[in-house]
Amino acid sequence: MTGIRTGRRAYYNWFSHVYDAFVRIHARGESEGTREFLVRNAGLPANGAGRILDVCCGTGAVVQVMARTYAGSLAVGYDFSRGMLQRARERAGAARAAFVEGDAAVLPFREDQFDVVTCSHALYELKGRAREAALLEMRRVVRPTGVVLIMEHEVPRRPFVRFLFHLRMRAMGSKDAREFVGGGLIPFERVFPEVSLDHTPTGRSRLVRCRKRKGS
Fold first, then answer.
1. What is the pTM of this model?
2. Choosing a second label site near 64 at 20 to 30 A (CA), which of 50, 56, 70, 136?
3. Where are the domains of the chain?
4. How far, in Å, CA of 59 to CA of 8, rounded?
């Protein structure tokens, strides 16, 4: 694993114990709908034999919904925090997915391996160079006909939730995170030749669809 500071790993290992509770507070009971929105946009046949990779999978909520929805597929959750992965493996239905520990900027997979690559509410916490490296790796491992789906927060409107949001960004390096959140599609267009934008029904998250080839 390259370029990952021990302190950051320790933070996420600790944060794994309260992460799901934090998400519930932030999402106000709508996290399940947001995950379902992301999963529907994967566009795989329900009983197909696709390959799915969820980068920065955290406690595994997204990848497990993917594995359940696309039951014939191989679903892989990938995260650098051992604590997060441990929580993921403790979830009901965890056996449907495989979990791999590693650095998002150096994915241990061959080129063109996955039909769908997802990353949900995580890229804003990476530093600029690591974030771009992670996007480049996602482009490398997705198939030419596949799609990379990036779900990111819109800045919350409610004052208390917005305070928690900025507090977490500050802990991770707020200036860089703010620039990314406010950067629109530019960080993605630097890496992918085809990028489009959608929003969840609540408007609290944005979904960026990325393809490695135009018209694929």
1. 0.83
2. 136
3. 6-211
4. 16
Q: What mean pLDDT comes out for the span 166-189? A: 68
**b/e per residue, 81-95, with b = 16+ CB within 10 A?**
bebbbebbeebeebe
Q: What is the pLDDT of residue 127?
A: 78
CA separation for the pair 157, 201 (Å, rounded): 15
Q: Decide the pairing of beta strands 194-199 and 205-211.
A: antiparallel
Residue 66: HSE in the Cβ half-sphere, 13 Å Cα cutoff: 32
Specify which residues 81 forms β-bridges with: none
Sheet holding 194-199, edge to edge: 98-101, 74-79, 51-55, 114-120, 142-153, 205-211, 194-199
* pLDDT over threshold 60, residue 10: yes
Write the CB contacts of 48 (distance below 8 Å, at least 6 apart in sequence). 70, 72, 73
* Helix, coil or strand: residue 142: strand
Rounded to an integer, what distance in angstroms lies between the CA atom of residue 85 and that of residue 93?
Answer: 14
CATH code, 6-211: 3.40.50.150
Cα dihedral 112/114/118/119 (nearest 10)? -60
Alpha carbons 94 and 127: distance in angstroms, whole number: 30
CA distance 158 to 32: 20
* Parallel, antiparallel or unpaired: strands 194-199 and 114-120: unpaired
How far is it between the farthest Cα atoms of the chain? 44
Give the C-alpha separation, 88 to 85, whole Å. Answer: 5
